[in-house]
Structure formats: structure tokens, C-alpha cells
Design a protein that fits this description.
The protein is built from 4 helices and no strands. The protein has 124 residues and is mostly helical. It has 2 domains: 61 residues, no CATH class; 33 residues, no CATH class. It is elongated. The protein starts with a helix and ends in a 26-residue tail after the last helix.
């Protein structure tokens, strides 16, 4: 339909007749109404859908600003200005969290303590 609207416009520009201009405007108004109606029908179907992924995808696409990774704060209180600083801070904080290993004297190995008196034997 949009291509048809463009064809009507090129026809008007070629002929420069007021009748062609009125036909183009009339079709453009009808097209705009159809697009608005189709959009509202689509939004209703997404809102009432069981698939929440579609809903949240549509909401994110409708937001004026896209969701980005927030700024990281360094230990001195300043924020990362570049991608390399961001990577360094992330690697440093990740290594602090994931490299803590227990000392050998603090490792507790569970010892199974089963006595024979805890086991009951039946004739079956």
C-alpha cells in the first residue's frame, strides 16, 4: 500500500494535476488510518498473548532509549570512561570474588561415622 501511495505521488509530480493530488491525499489519509488500526490490533494481541517474551520485546523496542550496560564505579569513586577501563574494573572485581580459596587447615572433610548397631538385620 505504501508503494501505491508513492506511485500516486510520482504520478501527481509528473502530471501536476490537482485531481491527482486529491487522489494521493485521500489515499494517504486512508493508509494512515489503516496503519494506526493495525498497530492497535497488534498491540492488543501482544498484550493478551501468553508469550511474555513478545510483550517485553515490543516494550523495549518502543522505548525512546535503548537499555545499555550501566557505568561501573572504580574503587576511587570515579566512573569508567572507556571500554578498556570498564573491562579492567570488571576483571579486577571478578578476580577478587572468584579467586578466594579456602586455606588447607580450614577444609572440613566429612567423615562417615556408621556403627553396626545403627544397622538392623531382618530375616527376610
Amino acid at each position: 500500500m505504501i508503494e501505491h501511495k508513492e506511485k500516486l505521488w510520482t504520478k501527481y509530480k509528473r502530471t501536476n494535476l490537482e485531481a491527482d493530488f486529491l487522489i494521493h491525499n485521500q489515499f494517504a489519509r486512508k493508509l494512515k488510518k489503516d496503519i494506526i488500526e493495525a498497530k492497535s490490533v497488534f498491540e492488543e494481541s501482544v498484550a493478551h498473548s501468553e508469550n511474555t517474551k513478545k510483550l517485553f520485546k515490543y516494550i523495549r523496542s518502543s522505548l525512546p532509549s535503548k537499555v545499555t550496560v550501566p557505568l561501573l564505579q572504580k574503587e576511587d569513586g570515579t566512573f569508567c570512561g572507556s571500554q578498556s577501563e570498564f573491562e579492567e574494573v570488571l576483571a579486577y572485581s571478578s578476580s577478587k570474588i572468584h579467586s578466594i580459596e579456602p586455606k588447607p587447615d580450614h577444609i572440613l572433610i566429612p567423615i562417615a561415622n556408621i556403627d553396626v548397631k545403627d544397622v538392623q538385620f531382618t530375616p527376610e
